[in-house]
Amino acid sequence: RAAFTGLSLHTQPIDILQSGLEAIAYRFALIYQRILPQLPTNVDHEIIAGGGGLLSSSAWLQIMADVLGRPLHTLAEKEGTSRGLALLALEQLGVIRRASDLAPALGMTYRPDNKRHAIHQEALARQMQLYDRLLSG
């Protein structure tokens, strides 16, 4: 099931696209909220974005940073999955000690806007209410 709420005669296709990108970002925010308590409190962490769809849209990257309320670093690597597999193979062969010791090259950093973050937090709460109603109905 799916639902689009708030549509009007003035809604443009770009508005629908933006709402879709925001909805995906909200799901990532929920995952992040579940992971966050598991992270060590004495270590600051970074969020690194990878994947062709996300990396090809600066608008979506900014939405993700705004929704998460954290800086979002992009991978400069064009083939992140291939690089990861190669590093794991080198680790298993004993050529390198740990794959995580060789950090990937980073590209741009998207910084969150606190005002938009607050708006997205309210929208996420509304989306969760609608999601619950949609699944229960």
Question: Would you kindly provide a written description of the structure presented here, covering whatever features stand out?
Answer:
The structure is a single chain. The chain is built from five helices and three strands, in the order H-E-H-H-E-H-E-H. By secondary structure, the chain is mostly helical. A three-stranded mixed β-sheet has the order 1-2-3. Helix 1 crosses helix 3 and helix 3 packs across helix 5. The longest helix is centred in the N-terminal third of the chain and has 23 residues. 11% of the residues are buried. The model has no long low-confidence stretch (mean pLDDT 91).
Relevant terms:
137 residues, mainly alpha, three-stranded mixed beta sheet, 5 helices, 54% helix, elongated
Cα shape: elongated
Detail the poorly predicted runs.
none
Alpha-carbon distance between the two ends: 10 Å
Helical proportion, percent range? 40-55%
Number of strands: 3
Record the strand order, biggest sheet.
1-2-3
Strand content: 5-15%
Following the backbone from N to C, one meets helices and strands in this order, namely HEHHEHEH
Class from secondary-structure proportions: mainly alpha
Q: What gyration radius follows from the Cα positions, in whole Å?
A: 18 Å
**Tally of helical segments:** 5
Average pLDDT = 91
